[in-house]
Specification:
Length: 356
């Protein structure tokens, strides 16, 4: 008698040319990820060669019951670290049957920005630092915290090592390897300032691929926490009080910034960001006002300031960039629950296309 684990890990390569494609999309809240699987004939790496598919949008908050069909368009393909073999994960966006993007499809507008000739010429690079918090399933309290109580104050947990400092490392390392297997350009992980909170970094990624990769990395993390019976939270301030919030600091550069003389281009770009501060804040994640207080390595949400090596600024420039006269900057305002399609294209729109 086969064990369930044997069947889950069954290698289909020798028995069929068919593969399993898991279609992944963003639900009605703008943060909930949904997926379902279908059988495909033969190995596929090009999303254009995958069929469109439909789902019941009335069950995801994206369509009325009397006209509930929503169409999935495959946009990016990744290797499946759960089923392995030649099976794939497919990042999709969503459209009406008439071919119009539904309101929660933020990828569509982002793709238009990133296909603009001026943006293409500047080759915008992104590195996104995705913070998140692991919660105990039954009590929705951070992993490693005493139920209804608090651990010792912040200090020993950031990049900490040890059973009393690092909670959930098995989940974090599993996610790291799974993303590498999938083909996501994950560049690192670390424990964060608040215990039970971690970060992974995606990038450098060019243009629209940054959003695709962050969303798929989130999906893989959701699946791993599902297996571990742990709840994943992207709340920007999961615990009130003297505890750090969770952000998604977005590192950014253009070709002009990376070339000689780029520091002047960086300073002009930051000035443009400052002029649209309110518009960016409105698009940088729900509940961000609870995080951007001017404390815990943040700038106050109502003000805009930048500085070199200043983690209390809205935008931080690294010492290396200042010294070399070229490089990148870090927008520290986005919340952990931001939409990477929205944030990345908005930064490009403001700094390259000069939208005021």
């Amino acid at each position: 008698m086969s064990l369930l684990s044997d069947l889950i890990n069954l290698d289909l390569t020798d028995s069929t040319n068919k593969i399993i494609a898991e279609y992944v999309w963003i639900g009605g809240s703008g943060m909930d990820l949904r997926s379902k699987a279908r059988t495909i004939d033969g190995h596929v790496t090009d999303p254009a060669k995958l069929p469109k598919w439909n789902y019941d949008g009335s069950s995801t908050g994206q369509a009325p019951g009397e006209d509930s069909e929503v169409i999935l368009y495959p946009q990016a393909v990744f290797r499946d670290p759960f089923r392995r073999g030649k099976n794939i994960l497919v990042m999709c966006d969503a459209y009406t049957p008439a071919g119009e993007p539904i309101p929660t499809n933020k990828r569509y507008e982002a793709a238009k920005i990133f296909s603009h000739p001026d943006v293409v010429a500047e080759e915008p690079w992104y590195g996104i630092e995705q913070e998140y918090t692991l919660l105990q399933k039954n009590v929705k309290w951070p992993l490693g915290w005493p139920t209804g109580g608090y651990p010792g104050p912040q200090g020993p947990y950031y990049c900490g090592v040890g059973a009393d400092k690092a909670f959930g490392r098995d989940i974090v390392d599993s996610h790291y390897k799974a993303c590498l297997y999938a083909g996501i350009n994950i560049s690192g992980i670390n424990g964060e300032v608040m215990p039970g909170q971690w970060e992974f970094q995606v990038g450098p990624a060019v243009g629209i691929s940054a959003g695709d990769e962050v969303w798929m990395a989130r999906y893989i993390l959701e699946r791993i926490t599902e297996i571990a019976d742990v709840v994943l939270s992207f709340d920007p301030k999961p615990i009130e009080g003297d505890w750090n919030g969770a952000g998604a600091h977005t590192n950014y550069s253009t070709k002009s910034m990376r070339n000689d003389g780029g520091y002047e281009v960086i300073k002009k770009a930051i000035e443009k960001l400052g002029r649209r501060h309110k518009e960016h804040i409105a698009a940088y994640g729900e509940g961000n006002e609870r995080r951007l207080t001017g404390k815990h390595e943040t700038a106050d949400i109502k003000s805009f300031k930048w500085g070199v090596a200043n983690r209390g600024a809205s935008v931080r420039v690294g010492r290396d960039t200042e010294r070399e006269g070229k490089g990148y900057f870090e927008d520290r305002r986005p919340a952990s629950n931001m939409d990477p399609y929205v944030v990345t294209c908005m930064i490009a729109e403001t700094t390259i296309l000069g939208k005021n």
